[in-house]
Amino acid sequence: MPTPDRTSYAEIVAAGRDLLEDSGLAGLTMQGVAQRVGVRAPSLYKRVRDRDALIEAVAAATVDDLAGRLEASDRSLEGLARAYRALAHERPEGFRLMFAAAAPQELLDRAGLTIVDSAASIAGEEHALDAARLVTAWATGFIHMELAGAFRLGGDVDGAFDYGLAALRRGLGA
Amino acid sequence: MPTPDRTSYAEIVAAGRDLLEDSGLAGLTMQGVAQRVGVRAPSLYKRVRDRDALIEAVAAATVDDLAGRLEASDRSLEGLARAYRALAHERPEGFRLMFAAAAPQELLDRAGLTIVDSAASIAGEEHALDAARLVTAWATGFIHMELAGAFRLGGDVDGAFDYGLAALRRGLGA
DNA sequence: ACCTGAACACCGTTCAAGT
DNA sequence: ACCTGAACACCGTTCAAGT
Q1: Which of B1, B173, B162 has the alpha carbon at shortest distance from B82?
Q2: Which of A34, A167, B156, B170 has the lowest CB atom count within 10 Å?
C-alpha cells in the first residue's frame, strides 16, 4: 500500500544547506533536518545513508553552486575571485565544509578547470596549472582567514583583497 | 582530605592535541581525553569548563606552536612559508582547527606580526600589512587545499609551492 | 513503499557520595 | 580537594509495526 512521498532527496539536501548556515556543522543534525522537511528523523534514512553522507551531499551541492557561479562570471582573474568570495560570504559554513568534507572529484575538476583556463591566458599554457593553484590558494586562504576573523591587525580588508589581485597579476605576468 | 592530582591542565591539552590528530575533531571526545590522561571523564571538568573550552585550548596551543616556529625560522618569505607548511603537515587537524575555533587574539597577533615584519622588508613599510596578508592567505589556502586533496589535476605539488613563492616575490617587489 | 514510535548505543555534563 | 559511579539529556541509528 504505497504512501505519497512527504519529502525528497533534493529537499533534504537543501534543508541541510540552510540548517548548516543557521546552526553550523554541529547544528546540522538529522532531527533538525527532519523537522525542516516535515518528517521524523528515521524517515531520512530512506533517502540518505547516514549523517556523513548527508554532510557530503551538502558539500557537493556547494561545490556545484560554486562551479556554476565561476562559469557564469566573466572568467577574468578578478571576476573569478570575486565570484568565489561572494559565495563564501553568502554561505560561509558551506565554504568551510568544502574543505572539511569530501566532494565528488568530477565537481571539483569542473570548478578547477574553469580557473586553469583563465590562468592560461595570463601566465601561458606552460604555467597554467601552477598559476591556477597560486590564485586559487590565495583566494581560498584569504576567505578562510577573513571568515575566521584573522584580519584584526587593522587596515582595509577589501583593500587587501584588491592589493592581492593586483600583485598576483604582476607576479603571473613575468 | 586532599588527594594527589592525577593529571593537569597541560597534560589534558597535550592529550587533546594528540587525540585530535589520531581521530579528527569528531573523535576528540571527553571520554577519549580522559582515558589518555588516566582519569574518568567527569574529572576533566575540574580543569576544563566544557568540551568547547578544551577545543579552544587545543587551537590556542597550536597557534602558540606556530608562532614559536615562525620566530625560530630565518624569517625570510620562504622560511616562514616552509615553517608554516611543515607544522600543517605534522599536525593537519590542528592546522584546520586554527581556522575553525577561536584562539586568543594575543597569540594570533604574535604570529601575524612576525610575518608583517618580514613583508615590510620586501614590499616596503607602506604595503607591509597588505603584503603580509597576501602571503599568509596564499600559504593558508595552499595548505588547506593540499590537505583536502584538492590538487588532483596532476602536476607537482611541491613545484607549485615553489612557483607560488617565486611569483609572490615578483608581485611584491614592484 | 514510506512513515513512525520505541529502543539502544554513545557522548556531554551534573552531582551526590567517596577518599 | 580531587575522583568516581550514577543519572539525565541529546543525538544517530535500527527495526518492527502501522498505513
Answers
A1: B162
A2: B156
